[in-house]
From TrEMBL, chain A:
One of its GO terms (biological process) is 2-oxoglutarate metabolic process. Gene3D superfamilies: 3.30.390.30, FAD/NAD(P)-binding domain. Belongs to the class-I pyridine nucleotide-disulfide oxidoreductase family. This is dihydrolipoyl dehydrogenase. Lipoamide dehydrogenase is a component of the plastidial pyruvate dehydrogenase complex (PDC). PANTHER family: DIHYDROLIPOYL DEHYDROGENASE, MITOCHONDRIAL (PTHR22912:SF151), DISULFIDE OXIDOREDUCTASE (PTHR22912). Coiled coil: none annotated. Its EC number is 1.8.1.4. Residues 443-554 form the Pyridine nucleotide-disulphide oxidoreductase dimerisation domain. NAD(+) binds at G267, S268, G269, Y270, I271, G272, L273, E274, E290, G363. SUPFAM superfamilies: FAD/NAD(P)-binding domain, FAD/NAD-linked reductases, dimerisation (C-terminal) domain. It is an enzyme of class 1 (oxidoreductase).
UniProtKB/TrEMBL annotation, chain B:
Residues 124-163 are annotated as: Disordered. This is Dihydrolipoamide acetyltransferase component of pyruvate dehydrogenase complex. The keyword Cytoplasm does not apply. Its EC number is 2.3.1.-. One of its GO terms (biological process) is pyruvate decarboxylation to acetyl-CoA. Residues 129-140 have a biased composition (Low complexity). GO terms for molecular function: dihydrolipoyllysine-residue acetyltransferase activity. Pfam families: 2-oxoacid_dh (PF00198), Biotin_lipoyl (PF00364), E3_binding (PF02817). Belongs to the 2-oxoacid dehydrogenase family. InterPro entries: 2-oxoA_DH_lipoyl-BS, 2-oxoacid_DH_actylTfrase, Biotin_lipoyl, CAT-like_dom_sf, E2/Pdx1, E3-bd_dom_sf, PSBD, Single_hybrid_motif. Its cofactor is (R)-lipoate. One of its GO terms (cellular component) is pyruvate dehydrogenase complex.
Length: 575, 476
């Protein structure tokens, strides 16, 4: 459900510089990646020699080694022989979701003989039951919403007759998109020669695992390194009976087999929010059930408040907060879906709801069953595989399990598709001899409502807490979409962007955007955090006018930083 | 409502962002209040137009406790003519919202408190609990001044001027009570989210509503039906309030009582106010053959009949400044330095008078363009006050409906209004005893006799008819 399939983390060196002369500040980024269908395939590994001035920050995405020249590894058409003798593979990845896919591609590029074990379908949650099909539904809901908003249409001078939809058509669109992306994913791995092994992968011991249907036909293989990337499944709390028809999870909802008149959504995080956007656009009324005291926990409070004013209050949505759904019974024998609510704190019964359907969007639970973790003395914590900051698996005694890594939803660090992929790439970097620690604070997240919400880094309360502990000052600045020409041209002036930063050194601590195309706008900020770019420098970057990106331009320009630009002005380039 | 206030910044910046400066309404009228000693400022309901006596809060852009910077939008106000963003003149914190969304407040009354520092928020809030008397005298002619200063009225209570006291019970009597397996004898009501929202907006008590949805659930249309039934019941009892049944125009619920919108309220107030002005009327028949010929010729250049009439009127007014004057205090003439022709336009749910400023000086092509722009803005409810309040002479044209003559009510603050009928072929006798066909229209001017006398109007109309009958000056 997370973001789309973008593999957002660009790998190793942020800026490939050819540091030829001491006076030359010019830099030529190497042609580094070929993109097709959202899948990244690196063609070149950059020969990274870092210009010292670009390394002014300690908090770098990776700890680059001053290696003069890493080997130039060609894109291997075949998936070569294992470099370390005695193993069937250099790397085996259990799980072919976005995380495993990202790791596999990077591994092949690094010259590793790689296999990926898929127990279900290639693409995992993101492609089949998450981000990808949900984007198809949201694309429909966005258009429906626009076409139904007569006031909005009139203000643009447009006249539209009553907009309608065909449920099966919408469902097919989501399904077709998933198949298409799935085959893209499969083809990209096949093209690189990644061995796709089918079955359930089980770890038998150090560097040894089997795969298959779990019967005598299972095959045993060995690998120098193993990555667990088994992902997650929708979390269904106790007392809730899912029948897949009237009480459903996101897995079912994405098939859009029905559009109920009234649907209760348990959980108002981004999964719940996105579905509320879809359902209300298609004509359903929605009731949110949220265990915390306010809707949209996890978002920056200010953004949450504004989003609530736009995404919830004017729509056909009501909500119960501070309550658990202790029991949900599917509709049967002519009775509607029954939801028993209890107070989240006192556990006393509060209310009973009868609705046409209930969507359980309370989060996701790691999927680690059958992995054979007991064979290597690893105990899951609330289902998650414990790992250190380098995704190395930790066993029950607190020791690192050699050659075993876990990425993505299964480790629970940051349950986002692109985070899984970034973690996978980070692991491959490590097993190929380059130390790498992923900065999770530079990973953006987005919620694809209309308008969208996106964020990177800390929320304001988190930043203030950190500032108090570490003794620095925090400033906040905001800009409004109302002042943006492009947003007004689209008649979509509702929205804001918020920057949380350190005025003493210009470090960006967090950026939160609510407004038109927020999910696309966030990357300027997330890249800045990943690269360690400071506000005093990025504010000189030029944005095309008129574009939505000027919202961020204004945001950076409105920040008051006490230090001046750190990099020297580049030499004039004749144009 | 979500999009309704998107575009109400009048200014769509085209300069690079760094060069932009957003316009600021003279809006929050940030008179610091003497009674409050600390740096707590009151945010007043601004006067967005000269005729505005109260405004409705469309939405609060900021919430209590939010930090405000100078120039930031705080609240969206619906005046009698348009929705506008009101911006803060000071940095500070929005300490307390006194008038909630959906409620109205008199111009000049306090709608919120602005604290300079976070510490003062609490102090400010305590002030709202014990209302310190109304703010400074509200704008002229307002006798029901600060009705919103007490503790927050519940949004439902005030947002619904519909007769609602008896909604629940009346509906129960008439329609029986909700039947729902889980309603526990009416103790619990099962209503869909939208039904609940609607009930709140329409002031309907859900307990008395029969649900027609699955398992007797109350859905939106049940609430609408209940609200309608209640209006009927109370209307029948009270008598006068019910609108008499008329042929059903589109979109009107027959038998319902619909409260005035802010704009309709303003119209109503102005119309009553006009009764205090001693008016009289003078009519004139003008031959329009030459004007029609001219119109045909330059129509392709975007010239409209409205602009031609406004231009002709303005040129006539140049020669008769007294007809362009007004009586403000009952003791003097106010001779206006500009000739601004206001033209009445019917828009959805009301009436507005966009103004063609300096119509005597601007050429007919620019005037036509200006008119088109004004009409578009009026439809979008985005006219700025100076675009609809500055008229010195008003035109009202019903000719397009085939109306041949009518008389208009004089808008307060101006001296005269001219009602224009349709121009139609007429058989006329000429002085030399012949009979011919001419296209003629009737105009009828209503004027304030305190400043404009019969002979003034007569002379003005004669000039006007000469200009229209020989319209070469219009295109100069």
């Amino acid at each position: 459900m997370q973001s789309a399939i973008s593999l957002s983390l660009s790998s190793p060196s942020p800026i490939a510089r050819s540091g030829v002369g001491s006076t030359s500040n010019a830099c030529w980024p190497m042609p580094r990646s070929l993109r097709f269908c959202g899948l990244r395939r690196e063609a070149f590994d950059s020969a990274a020699s870092f210009d010292a001035s670009s390394l002014r920050l300690a908090r770098f995405n990776l700890q680059p080694k001053q290696s003069t020249l890493s080997k130039v590894s060609a894109v291997l058409k075949g998936n070569g022989a294992p470099s370390s003798s005695g193993f069937d593979y250099d790397l085996v990845i259990i799980g072919a979701g976005v995380g495993g896919h990202g790791a596999a591609l990077h591994a092949v590029e690094k010259g590793l003989k790689t296999a990926i074990i898929e127990g279900d379908v290639v693409g995992g949650t993101c492609v089949n039951r998450g981000c990808v099909p949900s984007k198809a539904l949201l694309a429909v809901s966005g258009r429906m919403r626009e076409l139904q908003n007569e006031h909005h249409m009139n203000s643009l001078g447009l006249q539209v007759a009553a907009a309608g939809y065909n449920r099966q058509g919408v469902a097919d669109h989501a399904n077709n998109l998933a198949s298409k992306i799935r085959s893209n994913l499969t083809n990209s791995m096949k093209a690189l020669g990644v061995d796709i092994l089918t079955g359930v992968g089980t770890i038998l011991g150090p560097q040894k695992l089997k795969y298959g249907k779990g019967d005598s036909g299972d095959k045993t293989i060995t690998a120098k390194d193993i990555i667990i990337a088994t992902g997650s499944v929708p979390l269904v709390p106790k007392g809730i009976e899912v029948d897949g028809k009237t009480v459903i999870t996101s897995d079912h909802a994405l098939k859009l087999e029905s559009v109920p008149d009234w649907i209760a959504i348990v959980g108002s995080g981004y999964i719940g929010l996105e579905f509320s956007d879809v359902y209300t656009a298609l004509g359903s009324e929605v009731t949110f059930i949220e265990a915390l005291d306010q809707l949209m926990p996890g978002f920056d409070p200010e953004i949450g408040k504004l989003a609530q004013r736009v995404l919830i209050n004017p729509r056909k949505i009501d909500s119960y907060t501070g309550v658990f759904a202790s029991k949900i019974t599917p509709a049967k024998d002519g009775k509607p879906v029954q939801i028993e609510l209890i107070d989240a704190k006192t556990k006393e019964p509060k209310d009973t709801l009868e609705v046409d359907a209930a969507l359980i969007a309370t989060g996701r639970a790691p999927f680690t069953k059958g992995l054979g973790l007991e064979n290597i003395n690893v105990q899951t914590q609330r289902g998650f595989v414990p790992v250190d900051e380098r995704m190395r698996v930790i066993d029950a005694n607190g020791k690192l399990v050699p050659h075993l890594y876990c990425i993505g939803d299964a480790n629970g660090k940051m349950m986002l598709a692109h985070a899984a992929s970034a973690q996978g790439i980070s692991v491959v970097e490590q097993v190929t001899g380059k130390d790498h620690v992923l900065n999770h604070l530079s990973i953006p997240a987005a919620c694809f409502t209309h308008p969208e919400i996106s964020m990177v880094g800390l929320t304001e309360p988190q930043a203030r807490e950190k500032a108090q502990k570490e003794g620095f000052e925090v400033s906040v600045t905001k800009t409004s979409f109302k002042a943006n020409t492009k947003a007004l041209a689209e008649n979509e002036g509702e929205g804001m962007a918020k920057l949380i930063y350190r005025p003493d050194n210009g470090e960006i601590l967090g950026v939160h955007i609510f407004g038109l195309h927020a999910a696309d706008l966030i990357h300027e900020a997330s890249n800045a955090i990943a690269m360690g770019t400071r506000i005093q420098d990025i504010k000189f970057a030029v944005h095309a006018h008129p574009t939505l990106s000027e919202v961020l331009d204004e945001l950076f320009k409105s920040a008051k930083v006490k230090v001046s630009t750190s990099s020297a002005v580049a030499e004039p380039v004749p144009v | 409502m979500s999009h309704s206030h998107l575009l109400h910044t009048s200014f769509i910046p085209t300069a690079p962002p760094s060069l932009r400066r957003r316009p600021r309404w003279a809006a929050p009228v940030p008179r610091t209040h003497q009674r409050i000693q600390s740096k707590i400022r009151e945010i007043f309901m601004p006067a967005l137009s000269s005729t505005m006596t109260e405004g409705k809060i469309v939405s609060w852009v900021k919430s209590e406790g939010d930090k405000l910077s100078k120039g930031e939008s705080v609240v969206v106000v619906e005046s009698d003519k348009a929705d506008m963003d009101v911006e803060s003149f000071y940095d500070g914190y929005l300490a307390a919202i006194i008038v909630d969304e959906g409620l109205s407040a008199a111009v000049g009354s306090t709608i919120a408190l602005l604290a300079e520092t976070e510490e003062e928020i609490e102090l400010a809030r305590s002030k709202t609990a014990s209302p310190s008397a109304p703010a400074s005298a509200p704008a002229a002619g307002n006798n029901d001044a600060p009705k919103v200063l007490d503790e927050k009225p519940s949004p439902v209570a005030a947002a619904t001027p519909t007769p609602k006291a008896s909604v629940g019970s009346a509906a129960v009597g008439a329609l029986g009570s909700a039947v729902h397996p889980a309603s526990e004898g009416g103790m619990r009501v099962v209503a869909s989210p939208y039904a609940k929202k609607l009930a709140k907006d329409l002031g309907v008590d859900l307990k008395g509503v029969v649900g027609s949805g699955p398992n007797g659930r109350v859905v939106a249309k049940d609430v609408e039906a209940a609200a309608l039934a209640a209006a009927k019941v109370s209307g029948g009892g009270g008598g006068a309030a019910v609108a008499s049944p008329v042929a059903k125009p589109s979109g009107v619920e027959l038998g319902s009582v619909v409260p005035f919108t802010t704009m309709q309220n303003a119209v109503s107030r102005n119309m009553v106010e006009s009764l205090a002005v001693p008016t009289f009327r003078v009519g004139y028949t003008i031959t329009t053959d030459a004007l029609d010929a001219l119109y045909k010729k330059i129509k392709s250049k975007g010239v409209t009949m409205t602009a031609l009439l406004a231009k002709a009127t303005a040129l006539a007014l140049v020669k008769h400044p007294v007809v362009n004057s007004s009586c403000r205090d009952g003791k003097s003439f106010t001779y206006n330095s500009h000739i601004n022709i206001a033209v009445a336009v019917a828009i959805d749910g009301g009436l507005i008078t966009p103004v063609l400023q300096d119509a005597d000086k601007i050429d007919i092509y620019s005037l036509s363009r200006k008119w088109k722009e004004l009409v578009d803005k009026a439809r979008a409810k985005q006219l700025q006050p100076n675009e609809y309040t500055t008229g010195t002479f008003t035109l009202s044209n019903l000719g397009m409906f085939g109306v041949d003559r009518f008389d208009a009510i004089l808008p307060p603050g101006t001296g005269a209004i001219m009602a224009v009928g349709a121009s139609q072929p007429t058989v006329v006798g000429t002085k030399d005893g012949r009979i011919g066909m001419k296209t003629q229209m009737q105009v009828n001017v209503t004027a304030d006799h305190r400043v404009i006398y019969g002979a003034d109007l007569a002379a003005f109309l004669q000039t006007l008819s000469k200009i229209i009958e020989d319209p070469k000056d219009l295109t100069l």
